[in-house]
Amino acid sequence: MTDAAPPGAGLGKDLVGLEGLTGDQIRTILDTAEPFKEISERRIKKVPVLRGKTIVNLFFEPSTRTRISFEFAEKRLSADTVNISATGSSVQKGETLVDTARTLEAMRIDMVVMRHGSSGAARFLADRIPSNVINGGDGQHEHPTQALLDLLTLRDRFGELDGLKVCIVGDILHSRVARSNIWGLLKVGAEVAVCGPRTLIPLGIEELGVSVFGRVEEAIEWSDALYVLRLQLERMKAGFIPSVREYNRVFGVSAERLERAKEALVVLHPGPMNRGVEIDSDVADGPRSVILPQVTNGVAVRMAVLYLLAGGRPDAAEAAKQGET
Amino acid sequence: MLDPSRDVDGIGDLLVVDGRIEAAGGTLQGPDGCEMQDASGLVVAPGLVDLHVHFREPGGEHKETIATGARAAAAGGFTTVWTMPNTDPPIDDPAAVGFVRAEGERAGGARVMPIGAASVGLSGERMTEVGEMVAAGAVAVSDDGHPIWNAGLLRRLLEYTQTFGIPVLQHSEVRELAGFGVMNEGKVSTALGLRGQPNAAEAAMVARDIQLAELTGGHLHVCHVSARQTVEQLRLARERGLRVTSEVTPHHLALTETAVRGYRTEAKMNPPLRTEEDREAVRRALVDGVIDVIATDHAPHHYEEKEREFDDAPFGIVGLETALGLAMCELVEPGHLSLAGLVDRMSCSPARIMGIDAGTLRPGSPADIVLFDPGERWTVEPEAFLSRSRNTPFRGRELTGRVHVTLVGGVERYRRRAPDEAA
After folding, report:
1. Which pTM was predicted?
2. Per-residue confidence (pLDDT) for residue A2, from 0 to 100
């Protein structure tokens, strides 16, 4: 590791959310991700950047893709990783989050990636342990690495994020992905709108600097990129929408609706998809979809975040990757 | 000497005999061998009255007992406190009311007056034995912590309590609107990803309850007003001459929802901290007399219970030992209210609206007296609280106005030790 570098290029100890970052810091992370993309394309997908570092993936909520993406990122950087899920751990025996944190700390770990059902849980942990904390999604608050991989995917496609028009469609109220994307996109100069049933649009969203579309047709005409969120089926049971069928009829993103879109419009989705609910298969698998590139970029962005928080210098990422530590 | 109940504001002597005020004002000559207390430089005022505190006994003694709460109250300048019945088990029968009374008398702090539960087990279903509880010493009924959501039950309570001349204290919240909200609903809850409670959850319940107060002629007291729309409802009730009174907490006068940022559980309370507009509206309403009194909603919680995820932490903050200083800073220093106006809202007015023998230095009244220095600046150190709990968002805040001595029935129940005596 390069010594005497400002830790994480000024990111601070943790990555809790994008709300607290500047546009420059976000661009630094995206730039740092660029050289890491290539590692996953090699035959031997491993570099010694985080050799000797211990990382705990602490997942209090079920997650497949985020956990696996982090794990690949960690392993390809040669870190030692331990996965802890809430099921079968001491958490189920009533241990408090603060005790879990202290216990891990006592084992002398370097970093924690945490997914937790309560908004603010990542901040809570970060304030109480000296290890680096990376938020892998906290309640309905933020999911910063998801938004970073989304930004990277949009930048790959459009070259420039400044002035890009992005509309997030779906359940904004309960979505940490939406919040992180709103902050991230606004900070790098994009225009952001949201669209969905008013029951799933939180009060005061306009005050964050976001415009609201009531009809998905209008959102599609306006957008350069459409970010389709997963509709949690339990929202119907909780009375936010009358039925999934109606949701698809009014807000579903279909090929037919996209006929009115700009030529270059792309469609993103954080996964996992409910095909035929918020997004139709011909869109998900069609030429406008960048859903799989999002997944690929997830590993590179997470490598960049791990590298920077571990104290790596953004301008040394290429060299570090070559093993010149 | 400051006694807004008799428009007294000047320098004078006060003579207490056998726990009652014998004479107040001018130069007085006490009987031979009478004890002298020099209060020069201090304000002598009727002891403060708090209509809304939670002492956690029985069931939550690790947070507060009646004894620690009563002493914390005296340290805050309070001589009378009304305790809410949402303990475990709740105070919903005469024996439980008698227990709180007896523990309060043993405590040697402020006078402790129990509020009985409005419904059995605070379940909102069946009326408690209001008359039996009054006979045992209850001064009001409430299900605070929960709303009396059943309009039919509230109607009957507002009717039935009239026999005993006691008010119904309502925690106003439409549960279907408040949902599982943990803070105010708006820009900050949206940014933090926390579930919010809209102003309408409070104001809609108050609007409904005012109709019931009009229907029945009963005395409805609206607890901890937080929303500007609630103030509008209370103004209408006042214009119509209804028996509707209300209170505001020091924290709703001092803070807004932004205090929650950083997921600070010490700023989690119900009703939640609102916006600057709401804060100004409740302050103006208190100044105008639309809101009658300041009440603390003193809600102690143990450190560990607050030291956790925001969603899982309990609602509430302690307030008895910071109330006077906060009110001085928020109301008197900026010129919204005179010192006499403040003493009125914290002492005379609560006594007057509830018809209790307090809040005055009139000869013949109980000698419940507070001596405080209105100009003394001090910094909030929760470790120095007499309360058993430390859950306050005001740690480190500099306040103006400090209690020096509190007398209850002429007996000294609190005296601030000078710093050199502190050890």
Report:
1. 0.93
2. 40
